[in-house]
Amino acid sequence: MRTAAYIHIPFCEHICHYCDFNKVFLKNQPVDQYIDSLLIEMKRTIERASIDTLKTIYIGGGTPTALSAEQLKHLFDGMHRILPMQDLVEFTVEVNPDSGEEDKLQVMKEAGVNRLSIGVQSFDTSLLQGIGRTHTSHSVYDAVQRSRQAGFDNISLDLMFGLPNQSVEQFIDTIEKASVLGVEHVSAYSLKIEEKTVFFNRQRKGKLSLPPEDDEVTMYQELQARTKQNGFDQYEISNFAKPGYESQHNLVYWNNDEYYGFGAGAHGYVNGVRNHNIGPISKYIQAIESGDLPYLQEHRVTKVEQIEEAMFMGLRKLAGVNLSTLSTRYNVDLKEVYRDQITNLTKRGLLEQDGDVLRLTDDGLLLANEVFEQFLAVLNEDMEKNES
Length: 388
Known about the structure:
Elements: E1 4-9, E2 11-12, E3 24-25, H1 31-49, E4 56-61, H2 69-82, E5 90-95, H3 102-111, E6 115-121, H4 125-130, H5 137-149, E7 155-161, H6 168-180, E8 185-190, H7 198-204, H8 213-229, E9 233-236, E10 239-241, H9 248-254, E11 260-262, E12 267-270, E13 273-277, H10 281-289, E14 295-300, H11 303-314, E15 321-322, H12 323-330, H13 334-337, H14 339-347, E16 351-354, E17 357-360, H15 362-366, H16 368-373, H17 383-387
Parallel strand pairs: 1-4, 1-11, 2-3, 4-5, 5-6, 6-7, 7-8
Antiparallel strand pairs: 8-10, 9-10, 12-13, 13-14, 15-17, 16-17
Helix pairs in contact: 1-2, 1-10, 2-3, 6-8
């Protein structure tokens, strides 16, 4: 049952050096026309897929708060007319510290938004400038204060580590300052150099100074230790929450459940098919105007792919995966199928097994991608015919 929806707002007031998400500069863009097209896509999807209820909605980007208060209200009013939002338990919007003004926060609150994800990345001004961010640490404090005053009691901060020229001490300072703010959730991701980014071009030219791998490992270990000291529970490789404030929307992804994706460049997973929307704004709008859904690609996920995704996405959670539950879900004995992989990874101290539950160890968290790779290309595609 699909009870989650992701909505993409591709507009930004500036482009960060590390970002490879689908985004464009806000200036001179057909924002109002895009919102109208977005709402039409939702309506057509409802007509085709018959959405009964939504439990979580996540609006990301880009920068959703690059929209004006009036544009946000137009979007939210349309969503309430079209989508079944009466049973929502979590409604998240990403907020840039520089653009989370009081009028926008009020519009969000009135629309039923109950969770904010604020893009902080670092509290060090020099590092922020170095990654192309325009806000300061003071902007973050102000954004959190305004959010509290507007009535939001579920706030997440996004942090990054392994940034160019970042020291372990600088990252520790960021963790501590994030904790002092009293937020309910922290996400912290190591920098990945993606193609078509400023950092990718700099790295090719030998002009990007990244921290040593040992320092990045230390940063992650400090993140784990200090969030724990400050009352956060780690529930996923990169996510830490006060008790009861785990991201319900992101758990949909990690549980390999289906979800709707709306907007230019958005991804969805509906009825066993993963779809990828057209990315360029003008072409997305044209596709909507033509009377169709704006799909660029559609891929029916095979049973083998479903199992592989369930394993490596589920193992991202600290709770791990229940092999019996997944075996029943996919009608395959996964304990037998992955016996060698589980045995070898357990001997290496990267996995631990407690009855039917398989989870990463502390060392496994540091080498998670290496663990995940062991569960790929093991199953035979022929099992599609034999087991279904």
